[in-house]
Amino acid sequence: MCLPLKSPGCRNSQLGFTMIEVVVSLLILLIGLMGVISMQYLALKQINNTHLRSQVAFHAQSMADLIRANNSRPLGADDLQAWEQQLAHDIPSAKGEVVFNTGAAVSSAVISITWPERQLHNDVEEQTFTVTARLGE
């Protein structure tokens, strides 16, 4: 057994890493980094979807508040157009619809917003958020 690494009688002493060890360790590091990058990408996609959903909920609630502020009467074309423009400004691919149900004793308005959302494997899936606002007493 050779204790000093550079002694003249020691021919099989290992002085450093071999190229194969370096390549294997870099490959393991690369696989780990790719996993971290893909998790970050998925997290960013989900954050974007969450932001879209909160914007949709905000716009649906703002329309319900606008209808209630109008004393539960159907809104004019200008109010609906302004709401749709604001919705298109915040979520360009979203479509909004408001339907008034006045046949029952308690009338209501159904507010629906539809938008495309990216899913796990970059599949675009259409989402719909619907709010039914009871109007009157």
The gist of it:
This protein has helices at 19-69, 77-90; strands at 95-101, 108-118, 124-134. The chain is of the alpha+beta class. 9% of the residues are buried.
Description:
This protein has 137 residues and is of the alpha+beta class. The mean pLDDT is 84. The chain has one domain (19-134). It is 47% helix and 21% strand. The chain has helices at residues 19-69, 77-90, and strands at residues 95-101, 108-118, 124-134. It has two helices and three strands, in the order H-H-E-E-E. It is rod-shaped and about 90 Å long. A hairpin with a 5-residue loop joins strand 2 and strand 3 (124-134).
Radius of gyration: 31 Å
- Calculate the terminal CA-CA distance, rounded to whole Å: 96 Å
The pLDDT mean sits at: 84
Strand order of the largest sheet: 1-2-3
Number of strands: 3
Percent of residues in helices comes to 40-55%
Bin the strand percentage.
Answer: 15-25%
